Structure formats: C-alpha cells, structure tokens
Amino acid sequence: MKNLLCFGDSNTFGTNPAQPGTRHPFGVRWTGRLATMLSPEWRVIEEGMGGRTTVFDNPMEPRRSGIQALPIVLQSHRPLDCAIVSLGTNDLKEIFHASPRTIAAAAEQVCAAIRDYPYGGCGPAPKILLVSPIAVKPGISRSPYVGFDEDAVERSHRLAPFYREVAERNDWMFLDAATVAEASDADKLHMDPENHARLADAIADILRIEFTD
User: Fold this and answer.
1) What is the pLDDT of residue 213?
2) DSSP state of 6
3) What is the number of other CB atoms lying within 10 angstroms of the CB of residue 151?
4) How many CB atoms lie within 10 A of CB 45?
5) Are strands 42-48 and 82-86 parallel, antiparallel or unpaired?
6) How far apart, in whole angstroms, are the C-alpha atoms of residue 91 and residue 152?
7) What sign for the dihedral angle of Cα 174, 176, 180, 184?
8) Residue limits of the SGNH hydrolase-type esterase domain (predicted)?
9) Rounded to whole angstroms, how far apart are CA atoms 5 and 18?
10) What's the pLDDT score for residue 23?
11) Model pTM score
C-alpha cells in the first residue's frame, strides 16, 4: 500500500465556488478523483484546510499556518510514500505583503519540514510533489473570501517560476497547476468540478511516471 498525503488549502479541501461555505463531494474533489484514478495500492489522505498558509500566521484566521500543523499531520499519517504540497494562495493576502519569491521560499520550508521529519521506524521520508497554485482572478477583492486585494492577481501569476526553481534545486516533483486548471468566475478563487478533474489528471500522470516500477 502506498500512502499519499495531499496537504493544501481550500482547493484541496474542495470549497465549492458556486455555493460559498460548502464543499464539493469526495468524488468531485481532485483528491477524490485521484483516489479513483490511481491503482488500488494507493491510499489518498486529504489534509486540506480553508485559509491555510505556508508558514504565515493570520490573526484574523488563527491556526492556519501549514508548517505549524505539519508535525501532527505527519505523526498521524506516517508512513508516507509521497506528499503533495499545494499551498501559497492564502499567502497572497494583503496582510502578509509577501512577494512571489518569499511565498516560494515559504513553500520550500514546508516541503523541507516534510523531508526532514523524524519518521523513525516509519521511514524513509516521502517523495514530494510541489504544486504551484492556480492564479486568482481579477475581482478577487470583491470575493466572498476576504483578505485579498487586486495586487494578488498579478503576484499569483508570478509564483510558478519561483516554485519550479525550488523544486528543481531540491529534486522534488513539480506541477504548475495554473497550466491545467483555473479558478471559477463565481468567486475568483476556487475550482469548479471540471477544473478539479483537470488537476487530478495532471497529478495522476506525474505520479504514474514517478512510481513506475
């Protein structure tokens, strides 16, 4: 059995842009689709949380720092064969004033924490797939999900090159989610079912290649 951790934010949780405050069903979420696409040997572990950042603390949304949540998550779900990290969108919020380079460096900290965690008898460390997030759309400042200004749109489009550099330097797998999926026009932030499917397809292709015996 291969254990796959999907560690992310509301687009991993599966927030439904058409109905704010609700969640796509398991079979619609990219994580759920991935579970059906991979062989029965894979166990997909969902760890998505709305508002989750890489490393930043938001006083308006407490307990959302990804790196602070990691020790509990890793201790609970070890052993792991692969970890997908899909964070960075919430780092674009105005309160953090974070550049794309800073956000990518923070994502590197999260991935490094997964790599360096003491798994003990449940080792070795998992392979890592770093996913650069989809771009947010113009009008995000008027979205039901507060905290973003319009500058977030431009910065979201500049994340991928920095994420790619981080992944290549550390020999991690990489996917630019913005090349295969996009946010819904409904809330400028979250994916609809079609885009969850596209993301699942792209991730499945990467994992099949990486884990081919």
Assistant:
1) 65
2) E
3) 13
4) 17
5) unpaired
6) 9
7) positive
8) 6-194
9) 27
10) 98
11) 0.97
Cβ pair 49, 6 in contact under 8 A: no
In residues, how long is the chain?
A: 213
Least Cα distance to 170 among 112, 113, 209 occurs for 112
List the beta bridge partners of residue 44.
4
Give Cα separations from 25 to 30, 58, 74, 135, 196 (angstroms).
10, 28, 25, 23, 11
What is the topology classification, in CATH, of domain 2-210? Rossmann fold (3.40.50)
* Identity at 71, one-letter amino acid code: P
Q: Is 68 helix (H, G, I), strand (E, B) or coil?
A: helix
Kind of pairing, strands 2-8 and 42-48?
Answer: parallel
pLDDT, tens digit, for every residue of 93-150?
999 999 999 999 999 999 999 999 999 999 899 999 999 999 999 999 999 999 999 9
Q: CA–CA distance from 149 to each of 65, 93, 94, 158 (Å)?
A: 20, 7, 6, 16
For the chain, domain boundaries: 2-210
CA–chain centroid gap for 165, Å, is 17
How far apart, in whole angstroms, are the C-alpha atoms of residue 67 and residue 145? Answer: 22
Beta-strand runs (E) in 14-124: 42-48, 82-86
CA distance 127 to 30: 19
Q: In the prediction, which pLDDT does 123 show?
A: 82
Query: Which residue has tokens 């794309």?
Result: 100
Of 142, 191, 198, nearest in space to 175 by CA: 198
- Strands 82-86 and 173-176 turn out to be unpaired
